[in-house]
Amino acid sequence: MASIKEFQVTFDCAEPERVARFWCEVLGYVVPPPPKGFATWGDYDRSLPPERQGASFACVDPSGVGPRLLFLRVPEGKTVKNRVHLDVRVATGLEGEERLAALEAEGARLAGLGAVRVRLLRADGFDESCLVMQDVEGNEFCLD
Predict the structure, then answer these.
(1) Are 85 and 139 in contact (CB under 8 A)?
(2) Theoretical Cys-Cys bridge with 16: which of 47, 51, 71, 120, CB 3.0 to 4.6 Å?
(3) In the chain, what percentage of residues exceed pLDDT 90?
């Protein structure tokens, strides 16, 4: 059976560069170098037909381990809850008040970047506490 060596996660959104730069800050990702022959992404973008300008933007894990994230402009807005979301692991191995403090600290940092706190789900005997948030375009994610 063949194994998948590499994959990317693609997000539909209204403002690809804005959302990509938010996720770079959340995950410690970076914007990859522009295509050959272009000094900047702006130069590349201006070379495209007007309808394609600003249509996509990506960010990558600088270590090369995590998946590439691709953000694509779509005409429709977000209307329902995400069927798939990212869990950002900020409190792995922590429990109780120590876990809650780590979740709250990261939640506050991300709120400063434009994220919105939705609700805290407290430990229930089966699952540990997590903090549900939304990114700059309202896409849900969890701090776990």
Answers:
(1) yes
(2) 71
(3) 77
